[in-house]
Amino acid sequence: MDSDDEQLLRGRVYGQDHERPGPRPGQSYAELVGGPLDGLLLDITGWTREEADAGIALPTELGQFGAGGRSTYRPRPGGEPRFEWTGDIR
């Protein structure tokens, strides 16, 4: 992915359609930091503390394993609404 692709992803919400890619009022988001989904927002509306602390594996074709792979993210310490990339899995 080049810098033009990275700029295109910034501020978009992971999993949203291309017609309405941005954040929506009344929702809670965490920024994905690092890895292939860097700069995307993850909708965490309604997540419990336990769910957020467990992190998430997000399907993506952009990671190390291509189609069928997932990128894993965990929340950063300190209560910031950011999830940091921890690696790619199959």
Rg is 13 Å
* Helix fraction bin: 10-25%
Sequence of secondary-structure elements: HEEHEEE
The oligomeric state of the chains shown is single chain
User: What is the global morphology?
Assistant: globular
Low-confidence stretches: 4-8
Mean pLDDT: 87
Strand content: 25-35%
Structural class: alpha+beta
Number of helices: 2
By DSSP, the count of extended strands is 5
Biggest sheet layout: 5 strands, mixed
Describe the structure.
The protein is globular, with a radius of gyration of 13 Å. By secondary structure, it is α+β, with helices and mostly antiparallel strands. The two termini are 20 Å apart. Strands 2-1-5-4-3 form a five-stranded mixed sheet. It has helices at residues 3-9, 49-54, and strands at residues 29-33, 41-43, 56-59, 70-75, 82-89.
Features:
29% strand; single chain; 2 helices; alpha+beta; globular; five-stranded mixed sheet; 90 residues
